[in-house]
Amino acid sequence: MTASPAPRRLVLASNNAGKLAELQAMFAPLGLALVTQGSLGIPEAPEPHRTFLENALAKARHASAASGLPALADDAGLCVVAFGGAPGVDTAYYCTRFGYPKSDANNVRALLEQMRDVEDRRAAMVSTLVAVRHPDDPEPLVATGRVEGLITREPVGDGGFGFDPVMFIPAFGCTFAQLPTDVKNAHSHRGRAARAMLALMQERGWPQG
C-alpha cells in the first residue's frame, strides 16, 4: 500500500498562535500544511511600512526567502474612525505609545482610556493576506477582509484575542470575544480574507506554476 504524499508546506510569516489556529484549517483543502516561521528558525521581518499591504508583502517575501518555501503573511489591525484610521499598522504596539508594556490587555486598556470621551465609536478590523510562491514572485496573491463594528465602553467576553473583547459587531449583537470560536473565525476580518485567498489560490492552481 502506497503512503499518501505529505502535504506541501506553506510558511506562515507569523508566530501568533491565534492567527495559526484561524488559518491552518482553511488551507487544508489545498493540501497545504501551514507552519510558522518560528518553527523553522526564521526571525520576524521588519515592518517599516504604513499600510497593511506593504507590510504583509515584505513579511511574505522574507519568510519565503529564508525557507525556500511558498509563504503566506497577514498584516491586520484596528482602524478607529475617530482616530483617522489609527492605530492601523501600529495596532500590536498601540499601548506602548502610552507607557504600557506590550500586551493584548494593555492595548485594550489604552484604547478605552483614549476613547473615554469619544462619542463616535465606529471602527473596523482589517486583515490583508499576501501569498508568494517564491521570494521574487512578480504576481503575489492579495486578499483583504474587513469587519465594521463599534468600540465598547468596557471589555465584554472571554474568547478571542487582541481587541476582540471591545469590538462589538452589530450583526451579532455582541463582541467578537462573546462569539463561539467557529462563528468568530467564519465572520472575522481574517476569516473573510482567508476565504478570499483560498478562492484565489484554487483559481490560479497555486502554489504550482
Automatic annotation (TrEMBL):
Gene Ontology CC annotations of this record = cytosol
Metal-binding: present as a keyword of the record? yes
Q: Looking at the keywords, is Amino-acid biosynthesis present? A: no
Q: What class of enzyme is it?
A: hydrolase
Any one GO molecular-function label of the UniProt entry: ribonucleoside triphosphate phosphatase activity
Which cofactor does the UniProt annotation name? Answer: Mg(2+)
Q: Where is the active site?
A: 75 (proton acceptor)
Question: Which amino acid positions bind Mg(2+), per UniProt?
Answer: 75
Could you tell me what the cofactor note in this record states?
A: Binds 1 Mg(2+) ion per subunit.
Per UniProt, substrate binds at 14-19, 76, 161-164, 184, 189-190
Q: What is its EC number?
A: 3.6.1.66
User: What Pfam family is a match, any one?
Assistant: Ham1p_like
User: Which branch of life, at top level?
Assistant: Bacteria
Q: Biological process GO terms, please?
A: nucleotide metabolic process; purine nucleoside triphosphate catabolic process
Task: Give UniProt keywords alphabetically.
Answer: Hydrolase, Magnesium, Metal-binding, Nucleotide metabolism, Nucleotide-binding
**What reaction does this catalyse?**
ITP + H2O = IMP + diphosphate + H(+); dITP + H2O = dIMP + diphosphate + H(+); XTP + H2O = XMP + diphosphate + H(+)
According to the record's subunit comment, the protein's assembly and interactions are: Homodimer.
Family in the record: Belongs to the HAM1 NTPase family.
Q: Which HAMAP family match?
A: Non_canon_purine_NTPase
Q: What functional role does this protein have?
A: Pyrophosphatase that catalyzes the hydrolysis of nucleoside triphosphates to their monophosphate derivatives, with a high preference for the non-canonical purine nucleotides XTP (xanthosine triphosphate), dITP (deoxyinosine triphosphate) and ITP. Seems to function as a house-cleaning enzyme that removes non-canonical purine nucleotides from the nucleotide pool, thus preventing their incorporation into DNA/RNA and avoiding chromosomal lesions.
Tell me what this protein is called: dITP/XTP pyrophosphatase
At the highest ranks, the source species' classification is: Bacteria, Pseudomonadati, Pseudomonadota, Betaproteobacteria, Burkholderiales
What is this protein's gene name?
rdgB
